[in-house]
Design brief:
The protein is an alpha/beta fold. The protein is 39% helix and 18% strand. It is built from ten helices and seven strands. The strands form two sheets. Strands 3-2-1-4-5 form a five-stranded mixed sheet. A two-stranded antiparallel ribbon has the order 6-7. Helix 7 (135-142) crosses helix 10 and helix 8 (154-164) runs parallel beside helix 10 (183-200). The longest helix is centred in the C-terminal third of the chain and has 18 residues, at 183-200. The radius of gyration is 17 Å and the shape is globular. It starts with a strand and ends with a strand. 43% of the residues are buried.
Amino acid sequence: MEEVAGVDGAPAGWVVARVRPGAVRWDVVPDAAGVLAVTAGCAAVGVDIPLGVHATAGRRECDDLTARRLGKARSSVFPAPPRAVLTAPDHPAACARARALTGRAISLQTFHIAPRILDWDALPDRPGHVVEVHPELSLRTLAPDVGFASKKTARGAGQRIAALARWLDPAVALADLPSGARLDDVLDALAAAWSAQRWACGAAEVLGSELDDRGRPMFVAV
């Protein structure tokens, strides 16, 4: 297996898991450019953030398809609002723009991840091996027989570690975790790496087929 990477948001920026047979290397970097730097040479990079947004209106097809697949766990999907909403100076302004453009306000949690979406959206070029993933969908695809509890609970963390053990050795993956990232962040990064590995070998399922206003594809790889 070629080296692949999974990326999830963390308090200090982005936590990156670089996975190859028998080894997992961890990094915490401040921004999307840092992610691209530390994952140079990886066959695929799965990122848990919307990659590509509409300029002024419309829901992303991949968000709706992901939510539909997640069923009862669909609350973990935060539909990416238009870029005009993401650039609002505060939450009330974002809600006003969202209502005008889409007919509904956005949650405070969605507003808080706007800088992370814009971090990736601002890249002048996004390599084709960097793909959007959704860790909760990755885990449920990896372990479809598991009824996952919240990732914030001990039971949920244990379930996710057990599910990931179907793909890699948790003793290796979790032996030396980085500072600046929480346990649920690193488990999400590993789940993202699983989908990245599937993308690298041509086995990933693709949800969505739209292009953003800059001509870049918007989809979720599972």
